[in-house]
């Protein structure tokens, strides 16, 4: 009996170089042998599925594991013993992932190649879960770009045969100073990962790594903190919540209030109360 395709949701992000993601809940659907033009990463959240490859023996991916498919790699998907599975998939363009691999390794060693079909890696799993949640929530561009580069850099370094290039301490310290200054001058502006990489002269991956190592925060988290601090000052000076939100680059008052509460532990109204 054919199983209905229920609880399937897709997200496509033109501002993330065409990244396509989905989340499938409790599906017993069986996929025939097929391929993808993109690099595909799958996260099995619950249940298990056979991933039959053309040149590999049948393998099973279970909850908490990751499956990795290179472009053009023949595979299928069949829930183990017909038990519904919950999983997420990510499809990245080959040219984009090749660029990330070059930035990560500091040289062009050819297109990346995932060497294993199924891997247990809690760090990679968490990184892609975070990316999925940010995309689904429509998070700000810098947050989504940072999560995407971070997740794919991690999976390439661990399972794609790419050895990360090192950055000197001097270059890293200079980059951190430039990022701090760049973000402080653009509290009301959208900032992209490419903007920060260009400002520092580092690759996107290395800029993210040196900034996080030095500050304990991502550039997006640091930028958000600066914007909230500025908004607090404006509110104390008598600005309305709407004007303070606009001045610090928040898209609407709801976004501003939620972010303010997350960072301050109080709503704007509570912050101003006596």
Write up what this structure looks like:
The structure is a single chain. The chain has helices spanning about 95-105, 120-135, 140-160, 170-185, 195-200, 205-215, 220-235, 240-245, 255-265, 270; strands at about 10-15, 20-25, 30-35, 40-45, 50, 60, 65-70, 75-80, 85-90, 120. With about 270 residues, it is α+β, with helices and mostly antiparallel strands. It has three domains: about 10-160, Jelly Rolls, CATH 2.60.120.10; about 170-215, Arc Repressor Mutant, subunit A, CATH 1.10.10; about 230-270, Arc Repressor Mutant, subunit A. The strands form two sheets. Strands 1-2-9-4-7-10 form a six-stranded antiparallel sheet. Strand 5 (about 50) and strand 6 form a beta hairpin. Helix 4 (about 170-185) crosses helix 6 and helix 4 packs parallel to helix 7.
Structural class: alpha+beta
Main CATH class of the largest domain: Mainly Beta
CATH topology name of the largest domain? Jelly Rolls
Number of helices: 10
Strand content: 15-25%
Overall mean pLDDT stands at 92
CATH superfamily of the largest domain: Jelly Rolls
Strand segment tally: 10
Largest sheet: 6 strands, antiparallel
Strand order of the largest sheet: 1-2-9-4-7-10
Low-pLDDT regions:
none
Q: What sort of overall outline do the alpha carbons produce when their principal axes are compared?
A: globular
Instruction: Give the CA-CA distance, first to last residue.
Output: 65 Å
Order of helices and strands: EEEEEEEEEHEHHHHHHHHH
Q: Which CATH architecture of the largest domain?
A: Sandwich
What portion of residues is helical? Answer: 40-55%
Using only CA atoms, what is the Rg?
Answer: 21 Å
